[in-house]
Inverse folding.
């Protein structure tokens, strides 16, 4: 039986972070964006270098990178005239946190279900 | 605590929680079928739930909203996809705006399984994020460092779950 994670149960309002979670999973849904995450792991490639790896324009690549940035999966910094993209390594940690939050929500719900069953039994 | 097992699959982005209750399957089914009972457990104590439309029939649409402490409302809708009372229920939970239009971002799907075992019954809820397929691909295709870290962190949790 798992007992960890109970500390988040009372403090986190339900769905407080769902917007961020949606952004995260949507960002990961595209194969080009997943490829960017792999290639930008070492933080050496620019937006235009990344664009050359795919049959897409620099503008289209900028849009993909922007989606990843909004989901906080990559960061961008300027080196001279180039925009260097770097994958943030805690992306999967956040996916895991989303599952943890889901668990906490459901533990609470099950606790409430159990209370309902007990209460109704007492009344009948 | 009625919870007997929790299984989190980081690859498939699913979380399955199983609980054993001192009740029969029909009684557990009512927790889902009766909107007045749903309202008593769906939202945390800080919020109240109101289920506006709710009928467990394949193809039916449930609409509900949760009201927070400051009166702010979160709207939700379910698409009921599969119903086999009192044992199995599958639905998709969509975030919707105040007009009931779907908001960006995929639904969370849920599968509820209820099984009787002697004097008690177990309820399993498997819930997963919309992009399961793409998440599996992500994992398969590498992301080596992050993945290795994640597995190292998740393993002790999984062992703890088995213990």
């Amino acid at each position: 039986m798992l007992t960890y994670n109970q500390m988040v149960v009372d403090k986190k309002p339900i769905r407080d972070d769902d917007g961020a979670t949606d952004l995260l999973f949507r960002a990961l849904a595209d194969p080009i964006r997943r490829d960017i995450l792999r290639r930008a792991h070492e933080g050496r490639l620019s937006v235009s270098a990344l664009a050359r790896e795919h049959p897409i324009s620099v503008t289209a690549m900028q849009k993909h990178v922007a989606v990843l940035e909004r989901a906080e999966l990559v960061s961008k910094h300027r080196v001279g005239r180039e925009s260097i993209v770097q994958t943030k390594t805690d992306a999967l940690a956040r996916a895991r946190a989303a599952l943890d939050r889901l668990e906490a929500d459901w533990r609470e719900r099950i606790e409430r279900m159990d209370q309902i069953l007990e209460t109704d039994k007492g009344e009948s | 605590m009625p919870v007997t097992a929790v299984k989190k699959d980081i690859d498939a982005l699913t979380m399955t929680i199983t609980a054993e209750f001192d009740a029969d399957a029909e009684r557990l089914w009512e927790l889902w079928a009766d909107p007045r009972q749903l309202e008593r457990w769906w939202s945390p104590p800080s919020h109240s739930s109101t289920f506006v439309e709710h009928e467990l029939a394949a193809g039916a649409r449930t609409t509900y909203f949760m009201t927070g402490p400051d009166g702010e409302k979160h709207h939700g809708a379910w698409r009921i996809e599969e119903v086999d009372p009192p044992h199995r229920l599958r639905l998709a939970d969509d975030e919707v705006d105040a007009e009931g239009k779907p908001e960006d971002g995929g639904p969370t799907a849920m599968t509820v399984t209820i099984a009787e075992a002697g004097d008690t019954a177990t309820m399993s809820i498997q819930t997963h994020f919309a992009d399961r397929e793409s998440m599996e691909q992500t994992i398969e295709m590498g992301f080596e460092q992050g993945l290795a870290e994640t597995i190292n962190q998740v393993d002790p949790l999984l062992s703890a779950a088995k213990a």
User: Anything to note?
Assistant: Helices of chain A lie at 18-28, 31-39, 47-52, 58-70, 91-123. Residues 1-16 of chain A have pLDDT under 50 and may be disordered. Residues 91-123 of chain A form the longest helix (33 residues). Chain A touches chain B at residues 1-2, 4, 13-15, 18-19, 21-23, 25-26, 28-31, 34, 37-38, 41, 89-93, 95-96, 98-100, 102-103, 105-114, 116-117 (CB under 8 Å).
